[in-house]
Specification:
alpha/beta, 3 domains, 19 helices
Length: about 675
């Protein structure tokens, strides 16, 4: 990737400077009538240099020679790039410079110029390289017409000296080739083509609508992909036709269109491990926080409405009226205050938001969030009933963002050696690692008790995540979290180190599925400060103590109720923004049997491991104190408002507790 040189256009760097300088000198000496004092050989040299520069630097081509239509009507040069366009272009060129295929998925607010740039990039890829085929897929017929008009304008704006020959130029296809077949041997064209299709199946005037399996594509722009009809079927064919080579370019872009659909799943897979994080200079930025979370080759680019300079309105009072400005700011609602405090929104942006919501979104804040999001979570409007109190979660979100600005977590991992011992305990050590699976928000306080809830996975590359949440038993503060696709043995080693670090914390391990293997691993390491519960023996019908948390319908209901109460009453202190994000997307869905269940709103590629592990820690570790019973009989509210289990004392045997008066030691 080019190193940008100071004092030059933003797209000119070390690799482009000499050719760009020659072009500038040539333009400066041109005569007003179009003639030029330079010799024919020198002019030919400049032409060859400029053509090479266009091939090497698509931003130069677009800036110097392309024209676009304006929103107000008319046309202008494509030389006033928006911040969103620069952001997308930079992300694509950065990926290209690594030698990888360029794969970008874009979630955006409306009307930010992203389609214009994407078409420009594919025009460059096709009109300046031999034997290339590019595909643009629109969601409806009207969009096909707009794209065709965009390409015609690009083509007509090119100078004659670098404009390629065309054999065919119509709404569905542009073929860059010599139209005279008999002359192609002596004067061959590029042999490249641009194809425009709709993803609609049926109802289109185009015979090729909804089809895309038969060709090889070197560039693809999937426009408004969230609004495609049967996207799985269409994209399954198209994506297989794109070779995994460096000079292939794919842009999948859309505004959001609800949750649980193909685009939402596509975005979730690609955006795993990315989040909105505070910038040191203020505001928020979309940034990768966990490079191991996603196995997708697509780079997720999120473009907030706050990044678009056109989204401002004049205030309804004089610009120098400080008293009126003060009253205006005091009238901010909760969301407007959050946009100002966390994202750096200006009063003019707040005014634009108010007018746009009233005039274009029917006063519906959810519609505004979908069309003009400030975060990806906000973009995907859920149709399910939210499980948690959204007002409380908004407060938690603000608290997490505010904390991260002044005290970001420490990332790292634990080195555990089962064959090395310190004072008869398996040796462990904390190791700082910015890519590590563990985030420490608060260091352990000597003498303080901590509990750790653990939700497991099998560690498959595209499977679920494992998660461990650490809670301070006294303050109910989330002080650390471990998260990643770790297999049961790896997770066993990690939580051993985590538990030792936090003053030999109580481990509450869910033993369903892979959890039993993690429990065994921890016990093999000699760690026994573990959650126990009572279970009736199937033969003797007597209560027996067993290790680990069992997720049954009853224990799940207890966990959800406790979490809901703690969130609503603000009893928990949550520091991890990703945990809050999961809670915001947890919805109550009624199944075919009529029973309702809590689940993520985003379909098969969304997760709730952070919620589950937090709930296990809260109920099994804090409320039950590591001693779970069989029956939740009549209870009395404790100071936190959650009812403890009367039968927890049955599990005291083995922990130094009292002997049961009837069952004795051998229950």
């Amino acid at each position: 990737m080019e190193v940008v040189l100071p004092g030059l256009p933003w797209y000119i760097g070390t690799n482009s400077y000499k050719r760009w300088k020659l072009w500038e000198e040539f333009r400066a000496e041109a005569n007003p009538d179009g003639t030029h004092p330079w010799s024919a050989d020198d002019q030919r040299r400049v032409l060859e240099s400029v053509y090479t520069l266009c091939k090497d630097n698509p931003a130069f081509l677009l800036h110097e020679f392309m024209q676009i239509r304006t929103k107000a009507g008319g046309r202008r040069k494509f030389n006033q790039w928006t911040p969103a366009q620069k952001k997308l272009y930079t992300a694509a060129l950065k990926q290209y410079a690594t030698g990888k295929p360029v794969r970008i998925v874009i979630l955006k607010a409306r009307q930010m110029g992203i389609s214009t740039l994407s078409e420009g990039m594919l025009f460059w890829r096709t009109a300046f390289f031999r034997d290339a085929t590019s595909l643009i897929v629109a969601h409806e017929e009207e969009a096909v017409n707009n794209i065709y008009g965009m390409f015609r304008l690009y083509y007509e704006a090119l100078p004659d000296s670098i404009r390629p020959m065309t054999e065919k130029f119509n709404q569905g296809e542009i073929v860059f080739d010599n139209p005279k077949i008999n002359d192609r041997k002596a004067n061959p064209g590029l042999g490249s083509r641009l194809v425009v299709k709709t993803a609609a199946l049926g109802g289109s005037s185009k015979k090729s609508s909804g089809k895309g399996r038969s060709a090889t594509y070197h560039g693809v722009h999937a426009s408004e992909a969230a609004f495609w009809a049967e996207p799985e079927r269409f994209w399954g064919g198209v994506s297989q036709g794109v070779p995994d080579v460096n000079h292939s370019w794919v842009f999948v872009e859309s505004t959001a269109n609800g949750v649980g659909n193909w685009f939402h799943d596509f975005w979730r897979r690609s955006a795993a491990g990315w989040d909105m994080v505070p910038r040191p200079e203020g505001g928020m930025e979309w940034k990768q926080t966990d490079p191991h979370a996603s196995h997708s080759g697509y780079v997720p680019v999120f473009l907030s409405w706050l990044e678009h300079p056109e989204y401002v309105k004049d205030l309804p009072f004089a610009s120098d009226d400080k008293a009126a400005l003060g009253r205006f700011k005091r009238g901010y609602d909760k969301e407007e205050k959050s946009l100002t405090d966390n994202f750096g929104a200006t009063p003019n942006q707040i005014q634009w938001r108010r007018e746009t919501m009233a005039d274009k979104c029917d006063g519906d804040v959810h519609m505004f969030h979908q069309e003009y999001p400030s975060t990806p979570t906000e973009a995907f409007v859920s149709s399910g009933r939210k499980v948690f109190d959204m007002g409380s979660l908004a407060n938690y979100e603000d608290q997490c963002i505010g904390r991260a600005k002044v005290k970001p977590p420490t990332r790292g991992d634990y080195d555990v050696d089962p064959n090395s011992f310190v004072n008869d305990d398996v040796a462990w050590a904390w190791r700082r690692d910015e890519d590590g699976p563990v985030s420490l928000y608060e260091n352990p306080i000597p003498g303080r008790q901590y509990v750790i809830g653990v939700d497991l996975c099998y560690g498959k590359p595209a499977g679920d995540f494992a998660c461990a949440q650490v809670i301070d038993k006294q303050s109910w503060e989330q002080v650390a979290i471990a998260h990643g696709r770790l297999d049961p043995d790896q997770m066993g080693l990690l939580i051993y180190g985590l538990a030792r670090h936090y003053n030999d914390a109580l481990l509450v391990i869910e033993v369903d599925g892979p959890g039993i293997h993690t429990l065994t691993k921890v016990q093999d390491l000699g760690y026994w400060d573990l959650y126990q519960r009572m279970s009736f023996d199937g033969v003797s019908k007597k209560p027996q103590p067993v290790w680990g948390w069992k997720m049954s319908s009853k224990s799940r209901a207890q966990m959800v109720a406790a979490l809901k109460s703690a969130i609503r009453k603000n009893d928990l202190v949550i520091n991890d923004l990703a945990t809050v994000r999961e809670m915001q997307e947890w919805v109550l869905v009624t199944g075919a049997t009529g029973r309702a269940k809590e689940q993520p709103s985003g379909g098969p590629h969304s997760y709730d491991d952070r919620i589950t592990s937090l709930g296990i820690a809260l109920v099994g570790g804090v409320i039950e104190g590591g001693l779970g019973g069989i029956v939740a009989s009549k209870t009395v509210d404790n100071e936190k408002g959650v009812a403890p289990n009367d039968f927890a004392f049955l599990a005291e045997i083995g922990r130094g507790g009292d002997v049961h008066p009837t069952l004795g030691e051998n229950y």
